[in-house]
Design brief:
CATH architecture of chain A: 3-Layer(aba) Sandwich
Strand order of the largest sheet of chain A: 9-8-7-10-6-1-4-5-11
Number of domains of chain B: 2
Strand content of chain A: 25-35%
Helix content of chain B: 10-25%
Order of helices and strands of chain B: EEEHEHEHEHEEEEEEEEHEHEHEEH
Radius of gyration of chain A: 23 Å
Largest interface: A-B, 83 and 96 residues
CATH class of chain A: Alpha Beta
Structural class of chain B: alpha/beta
CATH superfamily of the largest domain in chain B: HUPs
Number of helices of chain A: 6
Strand content of chain B: 25-35%
Distance between the termini of chain A: 65 Å
CATH topology of the largest domain in chain B: Rossmann fold
Number of strands of chain B: 18
Number of strands of chain A: 13
Distance between the termini of chain B: 67 Å
Radius of gyration of chain B: 22 Å
Order of helices and strands of chain A: EEEHEHEHEHEEEEHEEEH
Number of domains of chain A: 1
Shape of chain A: globular
Shape of chain B: globular
Strand order of the largest sheet of chain B: 7-11-6-1-4-5-12
Oligomer: heterodimer
Structural class of chain A: alpha/beta
Chain lengths: 266, 347
């Protein structure tokens, strides 16, 4: 690759699901996203690091793409501050209500525009935990799909990737273009460059709508989403009966005797 | 295409000629769903030289084993498996396809769903057959439509704060992934046989852009599923150092140590110890839960433990709602007392 590699990284702004409180729930049991702090999806940070490390070692450029509301520009500015060269926001009312199938379609259309050698996605986002969008973008681009990336080397148009396969670690050779989903094991995102933080503080990412990336309306948003919500229940646990054990020597000694007596412990 | 007579399928994941536990668990659920629908249970077996694996699948509840035996499928590669599976679905037209939410399943299932343009629900904690009232056209003044006998795909969502039931009423097959350990396998029925159907991988002329160079298997050092006793810590443990207390307690009981997602995220314990919807589901004889608040996603992975002891400083923590014994107190005080009592046999 004479002029280095073109890398696209898909990033998502997500509500910080660890901070869900009563105020964040609407009466109908749905989430009031506005009541939650918005953050850079954790594993997308690892994906950005993978893209930046390719640029650093082999040359090229990094384009960060986000899909979402205009507020998602915040994560794109963060990506620019960390070293991304370009930032693109895909935002459109037509995209509202997209499930993973429609989301991956819209993102794949945006990714295509840049004709990348490598595409990086975080393995999953903390608001849905589905891990579906990455492989689904890869299927639509019909490129090599390498999930759970831990390490990456490049030799011409071949990626030598190390990936976690759950029961072990696999090394594979993937012909570019390729899409990778990245986990925390790849390594943390490098810190911002102060100079870049100032420079991109008010940067305006390129904004594209579904038409600009050639999406068919019927494949976006609700229309393009085969899944529907049948029912949402807020979680109210039925109060169970439990035996309260005082945190004293006697209380705990009694509990242990009881467990020994009924053969729970030996 | 919507085929209401279609089979209920389970993807029978195998590596190196060995089936994992997941297909057996999924077959248990598939039998229940297929019974309700009056259709057959199919298991999809892909690999190279995998014919001997058909027998255990029949004995675990499969009526039909759809086998694709091809050297190109000797190890999992997204493109090869995806292509073969997509062709198979088009050929045999099942109504439901269930995958294990393993590394392989979470790679393959979304790719297949994408190619077939059908829905997929990840990490379900339950699957049922029921009706769906489709109100999508309501704002255009359309009457709600009742869609009968669809797959209700139930999963906690949004950090465990809600339980969502997802359906895919029209673009079939209906697809879902289910975590390891969530469904119960049926007792093995020795000698039970079914129909073995061989299919082609349809890979002639298909370029597979990935070549697997090496796989280094690691023996899992943590065996939560196989442990009778588990000591599980949450964010309330407070530090990685404090987590050592849990290891001490587990050692005194001959048990294993697990953690909630919060504990894993905070770096108190390794990811492979995570118990809950996105981790391992366990049903030990005894679960000692320490400083775990009890998010639904966590409870989904441990509430069926035979006995649960919860230790927490917050008496209103949801973990107490599933506990059999509750100790409201500081785990730094309670655990040493527990260890002492265990070592002296409660005396």
């Amino acid at each position: 690759m004479m002029n280095g590699y073109t890398c696209v990284v898909c990033v998502k702004q997500v509500p910080d699901t660890k901070k869900v409180t009563g105020q964040a729930m609407k009466a109908d049991g749905t989430i009031n996203r506005a009541a939650l702090p918005a953050v850079f999806n954790p594993e997308d940070r690892n994906a950005l690091e993978a893209a930046l490390s390719v640029k650093e070692r082999y040359g090229g450029k990094v384009i960060a793409i986000a899909m979402g509301l205009p507020a998602a520009k915040a994560v794109l500015r963060e990506a620019l501050a960390c070293g991304a060269d370009e930032a693109v926001l895909v935002t459109d009312r037509k995209a509202a209500g997209s499930d993973t199938l429609a989301t991956s379609y819209i993102l794949s259309q945006a990714v295509r525009k840049f004709n990348p050698d490598l595409v990086f996605c975080g393995r999953q986002a903390i608001d849905g935990d589905t891990a579906q969008t990455g492989p689904q973008i890869g299927e639509k681009l019909d490129c090599a799909v390498v999930t759970y990336l831990e390490k990456l080397e490049l030799e011409g148009d071949v990626a030598i990737a190390t990936r976690d396969i759950g029961t072990g670690v696999e090394t594979c050779r993937a012909k570019l273009p390729a899409l990778f989903t990245v986990t925390e094991k790849f390594g943390e995102l490098r810190p911002y460059e102060m100079r870049r933080v100032m420079k991109y503080k008010n940067a305006e990412p390129t904004v594209l709508d579904c038409a600009a990336i050639g999406c068919e309306d019927g494949r976006c948003g609700f229309a393009g989403s085969p899944t529907s919500v049948n029912k949402i229940e807020s979680v109210v646990l039925a109060g169970g009966e439990f035996k309260e054990v005082p945190p004293t020597d006697e209380g705990i000694g009694g509990l242990v005797s009881e467990l020994i007596k009924d053969h729970t412990i030996g | 295409m919507k085929n209401t007579k279609g089979e209920v399928w389970v993807f029978a994941e195998q590596e190196e000629g060995k089936l994992s536990d997941v297909p057996f668990e999924l077959l248990g659920k598939a039998r229940e769903l297929a019974g309700r629908l009056g259709v057959k249970v199919g298991a999809v077996l892909m690999g190279d030289g995998v014919e001997p694996l058909a027998k255990p699948l029949f004995e675990a509840g499969a009526d039909v084993v759809h086998m694709i035996d091809d050297p190109a499928l000797s190890v999992f590669r997204n493109k090869a498996y995806r292509h073969a599976m997509v062709e198979l679905v088009k050929e045999a037209n099942p109504q439901i396809v269930i995958f294990g939410a393993t590394h392989m399943g979470r790679d393959l299932a979304p790719s297949v769903a994408s190619a077939l343009r059908c829905g997929l629900t990840a990490d379900c904690t339950d699957l049922q057959i029921g009706d769906h009232l489709d109100k999508r056209g309501a704002c255009e003044g359309e009457e709600p439509k009742l869609v009968k006998d669809v797959l209700l795909q139930i999963r906690p969502a949004f950090g465990g704060n809600i339980i969502a039931t997802i359906v895919n009423p029209y673009n079939w097959p209906q697809m879902a992934t289910v975590r390891e350990g969530v469904m119960k396998p049926l007792p093995r029925e020795e000698g039970r046989i079914g129909e073995l159907v061989r299919h082609s991988a349809h890979l002639d002329g298909v370029e597979i852009p990935v070549e697997v160079v090496e796989i280094v298997r690691r023996a899992s050092s943590v065996n939560l599923k196989g442990s009778r006793i588990i000591v599980c810590g949450g964010a309330g443990v407070g530090s990685k150092e404090n987590f050592k207390l849990l290891h001490d307690l587990a050692a005194a009981l001959g048990g294993a140590v697990g953690g909630s997602r919060a504990a894993v995220d905070l770096g108190y314990c390794e990811h492979e110890r995570q118990i809950g919807q996105t981790g391992v589901t366990v049903r030990p004889a005894l679960m000692i839960s320490c400083g775990v608040s009890g998010a639904v996603q966590h409870l989904a992975g441990m509430k069926d433990s035979a006995k649960i002891i919860a230790i927490n400083t917050d008496k209103d923590a949801p973990i107490f709602k599933v506990a059999h014994y509750g100790i409201v107190g500081d785990l730094n005080v309670v655990i040493p007392k527990l260890i002492k009592a265990i070592k002296s046999k409660g005396e």
